[in-house]
Amino acid sequence: MLKHTLIHPKINEVIGRAGHHGKILIADGNYPASSTLGPNAELVSLNLAPGIVNCTQVLEALLTAIPIEEANTMMYQTEGPYALDGDPPVWAQYRKAIADANLDLELKPIEKWDFYEAVRTPDHVLTIQTADQQRFANLLLSIGVRMD
To answer: What values do phi and psi take at 121, rounded to 5?
Structure first.
């Protein structure tokens, strides 16, 4: 029996064989998940209906199951039609989930095109496509080392 809250069989299978530095993308509903997979990555679609399942819910479940050493967000635009004035609201949700998991982990933004390249690497093991409608909700996690 699993002791963590993550019960999705395919996600558990992939993270069970992933190692240190493996990358997991939690993708929002607008992310082009099928065309940006790394060569070793699997895609799990959890996009049932708009907003169901969202990125924060996936993050909360993953944090119970694996150690995270880095969390990268896709940097938001400060000019143009998709510009934001300050961090996207979803980032506050991520910070709260990370703090609630008793982790000292900072969100590190990556420019949009660099983010796509970071996902396409051989270390990318899993994309979890959500139906999150919040802008700039994509989150790339790097698996850490289990310390207990």
So the answer is: -75, 160
Lookup: tokens for 49: 């209906």
Question: Does the residue 2 lie in any domain?
Answer: no
Q: What is the pTM of this model?
A: 0.94
pLDDT tens, position by position, for the chain (148 residues)?
678 999 999 999 999 999 999 999 999 999 999 999 999 999 999 999 999 999 999 999 999 999 999 999 999 988 888 788 889 999 999 999 999 999 999 999 999 999 999 999 999 999 999 999 999 999 999 999 987 6
Instruction: Return the CATH number at 54.
Output: 3.40.1650.10
* Counted domains in the chain: 1
Centre a 10 Å sphere on the Cβ of residue 44 and count the other Cβ atoms it contains: 17
Residue in 52, 59, 67, 90 with CA at minimum distance from that of residue 18: 67
b/e code 83-92 from CB counts within 10 Å (16+ = b): eeeebbebbe
Domain for residue 89, yes or no?
Answer: yes
